[in-house]
Write a structure and sequence with these properties.
By secondary structure, this protein is mainly alpha-helical. The chain has one domain: Winged helix-like DNA-binding domain superfamily/Winged helix DNA-binding domain (Arc Repressor Mutant, subunit A, Orthogonal Bundle). About 55% of the residues lie in helices and about 5% in strands. The protein has six helices and two strands. Strands 1-2 form a two-stranded antiparallel ribbon. Strand 1 and strand 2 form a beta hairpin. Helix 1 packs across helix 3 and helix 1 crosses helix 6. The chain is globular and about 60 Å long.
């Protein structure tokens, strides 16, 4: 499985929105772009997909922007990536359907389906809240001073 730049940017942007969730104030694409160093035009595409999936709400006007549609504890990495990535869980094409259909069935049942399930389970177990906790842990680790 390969996650595209759009998927990685989407996760980063959603984590930033999660960080701002408690304020109740919409976040502009420009502020996300400046904070994360991601192209504004690229973020517009990402947020369009996230909005279509119902993960963010948008408001227009001078005080407009984007907000999470649900609390950060209720949005998973799987939710975000499946909204952005077109082929996140793309089914494997048959290897030899004409000559050895039993091989294709065996590969599907023993390799591809378990792999898809494991990926889904792993991504669904990570919430935006969990990512925020990890960010705080990384900040704390960076601020430690070591004396010898």
């Amino acid at each position: 499985m390969k996650i595209s730049a759009k998927g990685r940017y989407g996760l980063a942007a959603m984590t930033y929105l999660a960080h701002k969730y408690e304020t109740g104030v919409p976040v502009t694409i420009i502020s996300v772009s400046e904070k994360l160093g991601i192209s504004k035009i690229y973020l517009e595409q990402v947020f369009s997909l996230l909005k279509r999936a119902g993960l963010v709400n948008s408001s227009k006007g001078s005080a407009g922007g984007y907000q999470l549609a649900y609390p950060p504890r209720d949005i998973t990495a799987y939710d975000v990536l499946s909204a952005i990535e077109l082929s996140l869980m793309e089914k494997a094409a048959p290897s030899s359907p004409e000559k050895m259909p039993e091989l294709d069935r065996a590969l599907s049942s023993r390799v591809f389906s378990p792999l898809d399930s494991a990926i889904h389970e792993a991504l669904a177990s990570v919430t935006l809240d969990g990512i925020l906790v990890a960010v705080d842990e990384e900040k704390a680790a960076d601020s430690l001073m070591y004396f010898i």
